Amino acid sequence: MRRFDARGNSVTFTWFTCGLLLVCLFSVLFPFLYVIMTSFAPQEEILTRGFFLIPHHWTINAYRYLMHNVNFLHSFYNAAYITIAGTLINMVLTSFMAYGLSKSWLKGRKILNFMVLFTMLFGGGIIPTYLIVKSLHLVNSYWALFLTGAIAPFHLIVLRSFFQTIPLELEESARIDGCGELRLFYRIILPLSLPAIATFTLFYAVQNWNSYFNAILYLNDSSKWPLQVYLRQLLNQSDGSVESAADALQFTPAVRMAAVVLTAAPLLMVYPFLQKYFNKGMLMGSVKG
C-alpha cells in the first residue's frame, strides 16, 4: 500500500527526490571544498599525501604569497575596474532602452523590438566584430570590452517586460504633477524596479568579472589583462619553467587553488546581499511578453 504525505505526494517519491538532491549537492560542494582545503595545505603535505580533503597542517602561505604578488594584485584591480565600470554602462544602457521599448506610443517600437530579437538568433561573428573594433581604434582599450557587450538582448527583453507591468496610472499622475521623463524614470520607475535592476546587475557583474575571451581578443597589453587571464596562465604553467626556488611557490597547487578561491570570493560575498532581490527579479517580468 502506497503512503502519502500531507501534500498528497508519495513518500517513496519524496525520499527519492531528497536523496537525488543530496547527491547533486555533494557533487557540487565536493570540488569546492577540495579547492578551499588544498589552498590551506602546505606543499610538503600535498606532495606526500596525494589526494585528501582535510589537511593535517594548516597554513596561509599561498594567500600571503598572492597578497604580495604584484601581477595578481594588478590583475585583480583590472578585473574590479572592468566589473564596476562595465556593469554601470550595461545597466544604464539596458535600462534606458528597455524603458523606451516598453512604451506603446514609441514610433518604430516593433521594428526595434525585432532588431533586438534578431541579435539573439544571429550574431555578427568574431572576425567582423574585431574589424569594427579595430576600425574604431578601440583595440587594447577597455572600451572594446564595454561596448561589445554593452546590452544583452535577453536581459533587455525581460527588463522591458518588467517595465510594462508597472501601472500607467502612476506615470500619468507623475506627469500631471509636472514630472519629466528622466525624473519619472529615476524617481518612480527605478525604485519600483529594484528587484529586476538588482538581478540584472548581478548578471552583468558576473559576466564582466569572468571576462576572458574578449580580454585576450582585444587587449594586447598584458598589464591590462583581468584576473581570469592571469588565473589561466597560473593554472597552465608547467613545473619545468621554474628557474629558482624563490619562484617555485607560484606554481604549487596551493597557490593555484588559493587564486581560484580569491577569484570566486567577491561574487560569493556580493550574492547574499542581492539574494532577496534576485529571487523576486527572476519571476517579475517573465509572464508578460
TrEMBL record:
Localization: Cell membrane
Gene3D superfamilies, A to Z: MetI-like (1.10.3720.10)
One Pfam family matching this protein: BPD_transp_1
Membrane topology summary: Multi-pass membrane protein
The protein, known as: Carbohydrate ABC transporter permease
Occurrences of domain ABC transmembrane type-1 (ranges): 76-273
Keywords: Cell membrane, Membrane, Transmembrane, Transmembrane helix, Transport
InterPro entries xrefs: MetI-like (IPR000515), MetI-like_sf (IPR035906)
Segments passing through the bilayer: 12-37, 76-99, 111-131, 143-163, 184-206, 254-274
First-listed, main subcellular location of the protein, grouped into a coarse class: membrane
Similarity field: Belongs to the binding-protein-dependent transport system permease family.
Keyword Secreted carried by entry: no
